Amino acid sequence: MANAGSVDHPMTEQEKKLVQASIEKIYADFKQRVAEGRKKIRHTLKPLPRAVFGQA
Predict the structure, then answer these.
(1) Which pLDDT tens digit goes with each residue over 7-41?
(2) Is the dihedral of CA 54, 7, 27, 38 positive or negative?
(3) Which of 21, 35, 53, 55 pairs as cysteine with 42 (C-beta 3.0–4.6 A)?
C-alpha cells in the first residue's frame, strides 16, 4: 500500500475499506462528542444521510 492516497491510480478495495472505516470512526467520535455536549444518549441522535459520505 505504498501508493495509498495517491491520485495516480484508482483505489483498491482494501484502500476503499480503510477509508470507509476511517470515516465511520471519525463520525462515531463526532456523534459521541455531540451527544456529550448536548447531554444526550448517542443513539438518540439522528443519522446523517448516506449521501453525505458519497454513497447516494
Answers:
(1) 788 889 999 999 999 998 998 898 888 888 887 66
(2) negative
(3) 35
Residue-level pLDDT at 34: 85
33: in domain: yes
Q: CB–CB of 42/32 below 8 Å?
A: yes
> Please, are residues 48 and 56 in contact by the beta-carbon 8 Å criterion?
no
Number of domains in the chain: 1
pTM: 0.59
Rounded to an integer, what distance in angstroms lies between the CA atom of residue 6 and that of residue 13? Answer: 14
Containing structural domain, residue 17:
13-43
